[in-house]
C-alpha cells in the first residue's frame, strides 16, 4: 500500500541537545526538505494502532505527536499502522482500551496516550498494549520543550520499537547528505543534516564545488567530508555544534573517503601522495599517518567494522573493483566478493552479520550484501543506478542514492530489501547519504 | 601565441630572404616576382603571409620543398595540438592508439617550451561509486602525464587533479554521454 505523508515547511527551532546550532556559511537556516514517499510495504509488517493522543492545553503548531509516531513506525517497514478514521474508539488510557475492538481490527499492539502543555514544556504520558495478551507492555512519561515536539515523538517511537522488537530504534538519529541545485555559475552544493524522516533539515556547508563522502563520528558530534573548495579534494572534520572545522588532509593528489575509528580518534582515508591511491590511517590529534595498503592498484573506500575490528575496502588489484577485508590495520587483505566484475564501497553493519556494497549485475548497479558467516551474496534493491549505501545503526535499514527521472534521490530499504520509501529533494539532486549514530 | 623555435627560424629565414634579395642569402627562391612592393606582413601558424602590390599578377609559388615540408609539419602539429581531450573505455586508464600521435605533439611542444604549464584533469562517467571514480580519474590523468614525460615533457610542467564523476562534460546516462565523460582534459595555463 502506498501513501504520501504530508510535508509541512517547518521553520528550524533550537533543540535541547543543540543539534541545530551554528551554521557554517549560509545566512538562512531552513532549507529544501526531503519528502517521504513510501513505495512498498513489507509483507510481514506487524499491525499496530497509534491512537491520536488526547491533548490538554495549547499544543504548538505542526505535525501531531501520534502522526509522527505513526510515520516512524511505518517507515521502519516492520509495522503497518491503522488509519485513525478506521478506529472504533479513541482511548487515551489503559482503562479505556476495549481489547475486543482492536482484535476485530486485526491489531497486535495499541499505543494510547495524552499530551499536557505546561508552560514551555509538553509532557507525554503513553502506554503500549499487547492486544492478544491484553497486557500493558510499556507505560512511561517523557517531556520536551514546546519547540521540540518532533524530538519527543521520535523518542516515543524508539521506545515502542524497542519494546516490540527488542532492538534499539533509529527514529531519533540524523541523516547527513549532499544536495546539488542550479546550473553553471548558480550551481550550489550543500551538505545538510536532517531528522531521519527528512524534516528539520539544516545546511552545514554551502559551496560552488563538489562535496563528497560525509562520515559521522561515532559520538554523532562531527562530520568528516571531502570538499573541492580549494580546487582539489581535501578532507575536513567539522564539529556540528560549534560549526568549527579543521582541514585535516590536503596532501598532493587525492584526499578522500574518510572513515572514523570506533574511538573517534583516527580516520581512515585514501591518499595518493605516494603515487597511487592507498589507504592510510591518520591520528587526528597528531595528524600522523600510517600506510595500511601497499599495492599498485587503486585501494580506496575504507570502512571500519566496529564488530570484528577489521577494515573493509575496495581494491581493483584483481583487475576490477572488489571488496577486500583486513583483519587488522595493515594485515594481508582477503577478497570477499567474487560474483560480479564490479563490487565497491563496502559498509559493514557493525553487528558482524553483513557487509553492504554497490554491485554490478549486467548493466545495472544495485546494492547487495554478503552474509559474513555463510559468504552468501544477495541483491537487495530493485533500482538500477544505485550508489552510496549507508546502514542504520541498528542494522535494520539501509539508505542509498539512486537515479530517478534524471535526478538523484535517497531511498531507504529494510536491510533484506523488503520495504522501501524514497526521499526526493524538493528541487535538484540528493546524494551521498550517511546515517548518523544512536546517541543516548 | 608562442611560436616554437623552428617556426621562429623559418620566419626569420623567410624575412631575411625578402629584405636582402635572394642571391645574398643563398636561398633557392624563385623570387623574381617579388620586388620591394611585396613584404611579409604577418606570421601565423608557422606560415608567413605576403601582401602588397605585385603589379603583374604573378602567382606566389616561391617556397622550396624544404620550406613547404616544414610548413606542412607545423600545421599538422598544430592541428594535433588542437585536440586537448582524451577519452577512455569504462573502468580503464588505457590510452587509445589514436591518442598517441596527439600526445606526442603535446609532449614535443612542452619540451620546446619549458615554461609552459599544463593542468591534467581526470574524469570518470557516473556509473559505479564516487570515491573509486575519483581514483580512476586520477589514474587516467597520471597515465597521460607519464606518456607526456616519456615523450619529452618534464614533470614540473604538469599538475594533475581528478574530479571523478563530479564534473561531467555531458549530462545524461546514455552511452554517448558517458563516453564523453570518461576523459582527461589538458588545460594549458
Automatic annotation (TrEMBL), chain B:
Domain OmpA-like: 75-189
CDD domains: OmpA_C-like (cd07185)
Record's subunit section: The Tol-Pal system is composed of five core proteins: the inner membrane proteins TolA, TolQ and TolR, the periplasmic protein TolB and the outer membrane protein Pal. They form a network linking the inner and outer membranes and the peptidoglycan layer.
Primary localization class, coarse: membrane
PANTHER family on file: LIPOPROTEIN YIAD-RELATED, STATOR ELEMENT OF FLAGELLAR MOTOR COMPLEX
Organism: Marinobacter vinifirmus
Protein name according to UniProt: Peptidoglycan-associated lipoprotein
InterPro entries: Bact_OuterMem_StrucFunc, OMP_bac, OmpA-like, OmpA-like_sf, Pal, Pal_lipo_C
Gene Ontology biological-process entries: cell division
Gene: pal
Family: Belongs to the Pal lipoprotein family.
Signal peptide boundaries: 1-20
Stated role: Part of the Tol-Pal system, which plays a role in outer membrane invagination during cell division and is important for maintaining outer membrane integrity.
Keyword annotations of the record: Cell cycle, Cell division, Cell outer membrane, Lipoprotein, Membrane, Palmitate, Signal
GO cellular component, one term: cell outer membrane
Amino acid at each position: 500500500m502506498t501513501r504520501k505523508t504530508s510535508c509541512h515547511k517547518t521553520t528550524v527551532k533550537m533543540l535541547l541537545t543543540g543539534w541545530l546550532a551554528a551554521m557554517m556559511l549560509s545566512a538562512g537556516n531552513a532549507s529544501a526538505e526531503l519528502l517521504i514517499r513510501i513505495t512498498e510495504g513489507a509483507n510481514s509488517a506487524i499491525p499496530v494502532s497509534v491512537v491520536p493522543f488526547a491533548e490538554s492545553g495549547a499544543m504548538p503548531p505542526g505535525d501531531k505527536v501520534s502522526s509522527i509516531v505513526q510515520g516512524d513506525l511505518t517507515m521502519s517497514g516492520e509495522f503497518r499502522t491503522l488509519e485513525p478514521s478506521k478506529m472504533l474508539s479513541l482511548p487515551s488510557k489503559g482503562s479505556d482500551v476495549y481489547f475486543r475492538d482492536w482484535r476485530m481490527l486485526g491489531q497486535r499492539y495499541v499505543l494510547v496516550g495524552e499530551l499536557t502543555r505546561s508552560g514551555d514544556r509538553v509532557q507525554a504520558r503513553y502506554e503500549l498494549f499487547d492486544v492478544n495478551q491484553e497486557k500493558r507492555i510499556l507505560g512511561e512519561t517523557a517531556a520536551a520543550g514546546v519547540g521540540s515536539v518532533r524530538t519527543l515523538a521520535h523518542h516515543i517511537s524508539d521506545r515502542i520499537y524497542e519494546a516490540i522488537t527488542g532492538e534499539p530504534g533509529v527514529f531519533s538519529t540524523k541523516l547527513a547528505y549532499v544536495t546539488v541545485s542550479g546550473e553553471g555559475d548558480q550551481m550550489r552544493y550543500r551538505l545538510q543534516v536532517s531528522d531521519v524522516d527528512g524534516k528539520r533539515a539544516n545546511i552545514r556547508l554551502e559551496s560552488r564545488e563538489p562535496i563528497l563522502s560525509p562520515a559521522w563520528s561515532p559520538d554523532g558530534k562531527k562530520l568528516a567530508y571531502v570538499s573541492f573548495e580549494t580546487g582539489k579534494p581535501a578532507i575536513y572534520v567539522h564539529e556540528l555544534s560549534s560549526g568549527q572545522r579543521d582541514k585535516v588532509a590536503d596532501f598532493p593528489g587525492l584526499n578522500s573517503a574518510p572513515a572514523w575509528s570506533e574511538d573517534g580518534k583516527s580516520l581512515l582515508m585514501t591518499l595518493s601522495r605516494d603515487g597511487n591511491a592507498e589507504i592510510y590511517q591518520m591520528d587526528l590529534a597528531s595528524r600522523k599517518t600510517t600506510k595500511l595498503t601497499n599495492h599498485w592498484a587503486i585501494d580506496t573506500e575504507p570502512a571500519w567494522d566496529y564488530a570484528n575490528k577489521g577494515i573493509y575496502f575496495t581494491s581493483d588489484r584483481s583487475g576490477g573493483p572488489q571488496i577486500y577485508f583486513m583483519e587488522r590495520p595493515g594485515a594481508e587483505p582477503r577478497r570477499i566478493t567474487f560474483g560480479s566484475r564490479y563490487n565497491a564501497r563496502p559498509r559493514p553493519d557493525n553487528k558482524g552479520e553483513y557487509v553492504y556494497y554497490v554491485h554490478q549485475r549486467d548493466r545495472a548497479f544495485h546494492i547487495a550484501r554478503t552474509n559474513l558467516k555463510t559468504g552468501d551474496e544477495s541483491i537487495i534493491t530493485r533500482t538500477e543506478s544505485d550508489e552510496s549505501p549507508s546502514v542504520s545503526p541498528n542494522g535494520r535499514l539501509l539508505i542509498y542514492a539512486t537515479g530517478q527521472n534524471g535526478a538523484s534521490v535517497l531511498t531507504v530499504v529494510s536491510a533484506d530489501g523488503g520495504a522501501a520509501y524514497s526521499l526526493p529533494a524538493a528541487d535538484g539532486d540528493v546524494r551521498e547519504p550517511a546515517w548518523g549514530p544512536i546517541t543516548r | 601565441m608562442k611560436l616554437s623555435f623552428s617556426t621562429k627560424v623559418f620566419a626569420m629565414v623567410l624575412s631575411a630572404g625578402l629584405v636582402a634579395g635572394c642571391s645574398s642569402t643563398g636561398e633557392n627562391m624563385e623570387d623574381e616576382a617579388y620586388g620591394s612592393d611585396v613584404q611579409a606582413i604577418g606570421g601565423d601558424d608557422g606560415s608567413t603571409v605576403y601582401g602588397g602590390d605585385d603589379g603583374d599578377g604573378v602567382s606566389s609559388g616561391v617556397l622550396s620543398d624544404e620550406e613547404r615540408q616544414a610548413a606542412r609539419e607545423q600545421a599538422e602539429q598544430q592541428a594535433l595540438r588542437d585536440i586537448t581531450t582524451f577519452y577512455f573505455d569504462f573502468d580503464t586508464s588505457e590510452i587509445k592508439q589514436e591518442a598517441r600521435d596527439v600526445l606526442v605533439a603535446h609532449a614535443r611542444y612542452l619540451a620546446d617550451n619549458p615554461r609552459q604549464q599544463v593542468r591534467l584533469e581526470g574524469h570518470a562517467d557516473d556509473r559505479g561509486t564516487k570515491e573509486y571514480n575519483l581514483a580512476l580519474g586520477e589514474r587516467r590523468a597520471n597515465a597521460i602525464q607519464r606518456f607526456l614525460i616519456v615523450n619529452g615533457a618534464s614533470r614540473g610542467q604538469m599538475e594533475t587533479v581528478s574530479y571523478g564523476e563530479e564534473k561531467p562534460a555531458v549530462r545524461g546516462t546514455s552511452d554517448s554521454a558517458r563516453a564523453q565523460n570518461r576523459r582527461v582534459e589538458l588545460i594549458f595555463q
